[in-house]
Task: structure prediction
Amino acid sequence: MTTASAPQPSDGQAPAEQADPHAPSPLLAAGSAQLGPRRVWVRAAQGATLALGAPLGWLGLRVLGGASPLDDLAAHPLLYTYLLVATTAAFALFGTLLGAREDALYALNAALAERSVTDSLTGLKNHQYFFARLGEELSRHRREDKPLSLVVMDLDHFKQVNDTHGHPAGDRVLAAVADAGRDVLRREDTLARLGGEEFGFLLPGLDLDQAMEVAERVQQAIESVRVPSDGGAALRVKVSIGVASAAQASTDAAELYARADAALYDAKVRGRDQIAAR
Result:
């Protein structure tokens, strides 16, 4: 097997189920971070509303001093118009600037959160996100009694690509494999780079037979990939794939991943360029 030891979360264990199975993982929230409603308009409206306090406050002071509200308004129309227009404009402008700053910070935080769960080379989700998603999908599998399959895929003889053609060519191969996998999988599936030349994907709603069919389509798509090398030769890619399904409610993340990884090992032992299941 060309990969290093089976990738696991940073504490050495597959992610445990959360106390509240309905509470989203912070990593998953990061992976789906999107910009919310623009705060600039909200803050501008709040500033304009707050500005009403200026003329109302002055009128209140005049009333406390014994003046009639209507008489004071009639006697000083320009003053109250100025207070209303000037303070509304000033507070709305301040709210606009504040909202713009908040929008910029929110966009930056969303970008940083997305980057924290994204593999920079392939654009896929990374190891941490994949195992967080695995825990979430297993929770849903137990609640809804729907099938869930996990697939682990490893590029065959990838070290030879790096040694012969250089690491830039190897990077192009990894990116091309990621693109081929994206084209096959559904939107609800999760495709991630687990590390090195190893990839994983989660297939919610698919049993073992259906997952094997998906694995075959992914393998065929990757076999059609041709990656140009610096020497001009087109590099071809072969992969070995291991498939496992969470057929029982008692299945946990570590056990499911271990079975898929063992199936991947079986595929390697059989001569590579194979798909095996456990």
